[in-house]
Amino acid sequence: MAIEHQREIRKSLNSRAVAFCPALVDIVGSINAALFLAQLLYWHSLGVRKDGYIFKTIAQTHEETRLTRAMQDKVVNDLQELGIIDYKLAGVPAKRHFLLNLDELYHQVSMHEDFTPSKEKAARYLARNKQTITETTQENTIENNPHKTISINELFSRNY
User: Fold this and answer.
1) How far apart are CA 27 and CA 9, in angstroms?
2) How many domains does the chain have?
């Protein structure tokens, strides 16, 4: 009987599982921020709008992560300060729209000790990105599509 209960519990709980990466805690500074970011990465991997944003309501995020509004507000602020996300309110009724800065996230991840090729890639990234904000903005606007949807595997396999 216990094995049958264990199967039912596992089946029930896995239906709404959220991926969690412990190394993200070290990178973003808290379990809540890592959980929130992992969920944004999941939704981002499913596709984004043409402008690169995805939207999630406070209620949707709470349903998926159990983070309260206050917790969400704090992690959104923390992730913005790290330069990993941009955030805006839009639509009627207003919804929260998030833009993931995958280049900055890659930079942060590549600096983490558990990221195998971090030292070489981080050095190349830093050497390549010694530009002014204006130069970078012009480059992204003219030459690149900064809102391109990429998979997590592609994110971590970029050759910086």
Assistant:
1) 32
2) 1
